[in-house]
TrEMBL record:
Belongs to the prenylcysteine oxidase family. This is FAD/NAD(P)-binding domain-containing protein. GO terms for biological process: prenylated protein catabolic process; prenylcysteine catabolic process. It comes from Lentinus tigrinus ALCF2SS1-6. The lineage of its organism: Eukaryota, Fungi, Dikarya, Basidiomycota, Agaricomycotina. The keyword Zinc does not apply. The keyword Transcription does not apply. Pfam families: NAD_binding_8 (PF13450), Prenylcys_lyase (PF07156). PANTHER family: FARNESYLCYSTEINE LYASE, PRENYLCYSTEINE LYASE DOMAIN-CONTAINING PROTEIN. Residues 165-513 form the Prenylcysteine lyase domain.
Amino acid sequence: MRSPVILIAATAAFFPTYAFQLPFKIPFFSRSTQEPLALPEVQQAETIIPNRIAIIGAGAAGSSAAFWISKAKERFGVDVEVDVYDKNGYIGGRSTTVQPYGDESLEPVELGGSVFVKVNKILWRAVSEFDLELEDFGRDDDSVMGIWDGQEFVLTTGGGSLLGNWLDKFKILWRYGYKAPTKTQALVDAMASSIIRLYEPNAPVWQNATSLLSELEWADVTAQTMAEYLDLHGVDRRFSRELVEAATRVNYGQNVDEIHALEGMVSLAANGASTVKGGNWQIFESFVAASNATLFLNTTVKAVSRFSASGPWMVQSSAFKDPRLYRSIILAAPYDQTGISFSTKTPLAEVKKRPYIHLNVTLLSTSSPTPNASYFNLGHGHKAPNSVLTTYDGLRQRGHSEPEFNSLTYHGKVLTKDGEKRVNAEGAEEWVVKIFSKQRLEDKWLEEMFEGKVGWVLRKEWDAYPVLPPTVEFPPVKLAEGLYYVNAFEPVISTMETETLAARNVVDLLMQEQYGAGLCKPHVVEDGEAARELDDDFVYGWDC
Ligand SMILES: Cc1cc2nc3c(=O)[nH]c(=O)nc-3n(C[C@H](O)[C@H](O)[C@H](O)COP(=O)(O)OP(=O)(O)OC[C@H]3O[C@@H](n4cnc5c(N)ncnc54)[C@H](O)[C@@H]3O)c2cc1C
Ligand SMILES: *[C@@H]1O[C@H](CO)[C@@H](O)[C@H](O)[C@H]1NC(C)=O
Ligand SMILES: *[C@@H]1O[C@H](CO)[C@@H](O)[C@H](O)[C@H]1NC(C)=O
Ligand SMILES: *[C@@H]1O[C@H](CO)[C@@H](O)[C@H](O)[C@H]1NC(C)=O
Ligand SMILES: *[C@@H]1O[C@H](CO)[C@@H](O)[C@H](O)[C@H]1NC(C)=O
Ligand SMILES: *[C@H]1O[C@@H](CO)[C@H](O)[C@@H](O)[C@@H]1NC(C)=O
C-alpha cells in the first residue's frame, strides 16, 4: 500500500490548481547563516523561488529523471523548467562507448555499463520508444568459457555464454550436480518475479530503501552474503564459490562471501542479455532530448546551498558566475564523488561514506584468437578459453595465487560501422577484448597474454559500483526538503535499469511533495468497474 502517497496525489487531482501557484514569495535571507558563496545580485530580503529543478548528473539516473519530470508535466499540466548538469562533455556517465583506435568509422565498444535484460522494463521500453536497435550479448557460438582460479581452470564450457544457458551445460551438471543449478535458478526466478511489482500500476514509492525492501520481502536478502544465502538454501558450496562467484566477480568485482545476496542474484539474472547497437548511452541521450530539459555539459556543480528552510536552493557551477536558484534539486551521482560542498541552515540527512570498487578496465584489440595457453598452465596443443571468468576459491581453498584479473573476455571482431571486419596493417582481423582488474595491466603483461599481437589499447579507471557488503541500512532518498538523492539506491542494486527506477521514484516523490502532482494520476476505480486487465507491456512511469 502506498496510502499516504495516493492521498496527496488524489488531493491534487481534486483541486488541480492548488499545486501550481508557484512561484510565490518566500522570505529568503536569514541572518544567522555563514555564507560560503558569493551571493547573487538578486539577493534581497525576499525573493522569488523560480519554478525550476536542477538535476546534477546526466547518467542513467539524471537523464531518466529529466524524462520522468517531463512525463509528470505532461500528465498534470505542471509548468516547471529543468536544468541538467554534468561535468563530463557527454551524456551517459558510467555508460559510454569508445572506438577502437579512436577511429570514428569503427563500431563503438562499451567502456562501462554494457548489458541489460528483458525484465529491465524501463530500458527495454526505451529502446523501442526511441527506435534504437538491440543486439544480443554473448551469444557467440565460438565462445569457450573457462573459470580460472589463478592456477587452473575449474570449469570450461564450450559455446554460448556462461550465464545465458548454463543450466544446459552437461559439464556443469557433472561438476555440480543437478540440484545446485536448479535451486539457484529458482531463487533467481523468484527474485525476478518480485521485481515485477516495481513496474505495476500501484508500484511502491519509497522514502528509503529499507521500507521498500521489507515491502518486497528482500530485507533478509540484503542482510546476508551471497555465500550465506545460497548455503542456507542448500546450494552446493562448490557451485556458489565457483560458478556463482564467476558471475559476482565479472559483474561487481566482489566475491560471494563479500557481496550481499540481492546483488549476487542480480549478477545471475543474465537471461537474454542485450546491449544497444552503437552504445547504451543513446537511451540516456534520448531521455534528455525527449525531456526538453536544458543541458549543461562540461559543467561542474561546485556548491549547493540554502539559507533558510523555505528559501530557494542555490547551485554554484562552472557555467554561471552567480549561483542559479531552484525550487528542488535531484542529485544523480554518488554523493562522495561529486565534490560538491553542501551548506544549509539545517543539516542534511546523513549520507555515510560509501566506498566504490575501483576498477581498471583495459580494452584492446588483438589478432590472437585466444589468450596465451601457457599463461594458464595449459599443455601444448591446448587452446585457452576466449572468455575467462574467475573464482577466488583457488586461494580460499587451495592456496593458489589470486587471479590477476576479474575477467578477460573476447567481444567479437573489430568491425566497421557497416559491419565489415576491419583488418590491421598485417592484413589480419582483430578481436575486441575487455579485461576487468584491480591493478593496472602493463603493456608487457598484455603482450605476453596475447602473444605479441596487440593492436589498440585503452585503459580506463572507474569507481564502478559500490562495495556491497550485507546491510540493512541504506542512504536516505531525501536529504532535505526539496533535495533528493537518486544514487541512494546503488547500495541496494547498482545497474543502469535500477538507476532509472530510482530516478522514477525520486521524481514521483518530488512532484508529489513540491508540486502536489506526482508521476501518474491515481487510477480511481469506478463503481462496478471490472478490475483492470494488466497487460504485460505495462511499465509504471512510461504508462499510468
Ligand atoms: C565497467 C562497468 C561495467 C558495468 N556493467 C554494467 C552492466 O553490464 N549492466 C548494468 O546495468 N550496469 C553496469 N554497470 C553499472 C552502471 O554503469 C551504473 O550503475 C549506472 O550507469 C550508474 O548510473 P548513474 O546515472 O546513477 O551514475 P553515473 O553514470 O555515474 O552518472 C553520474 C554523473 O554525474 C556526473 N557528476 C558527478 N559529480 C558532478 C558534479 N559535481 N557536477 C556535475 N556533474 C557531476 C558525472 O560526471 C556522471 O556523468 C557497470 C559499470 C561499470 C563501471
Ligand atoms: C567539453 O569540453 C571538451 C574539452 O574541452 C570539448 O572538446 C568538448 O567539445 C566540450 N563539449 C561540450 C558539449 O561542450
Ligand atoms: C523509512 O520509511 C518508513 C516509511 O516509509 C519509515 O517508517 C521509517 O522510519 C524510515 N526509516 C528510515 C531509516 O528512515
Ligand atoms: C521546450 O522548451 C522550449 C523552451 O524552453 C519551449 O518553448 C517549448 O514549448 C518546450 N516544448 C515542449 C514540448 O515542452
Ligand atoms: C605466453 O606466456 C608464457 C607464460 O606466461 C610466457 O613465458 C610466454 O612468453 C608467452 N608467449 C608469448 C608468445 O608471449
Ligand atoms: C589502475 O590500477 C592502479 C593500481 O595498480 C594503478 O595505480 C592505476 O594507474 C591503474 N590505472 C590505469 C588506467 O592503468
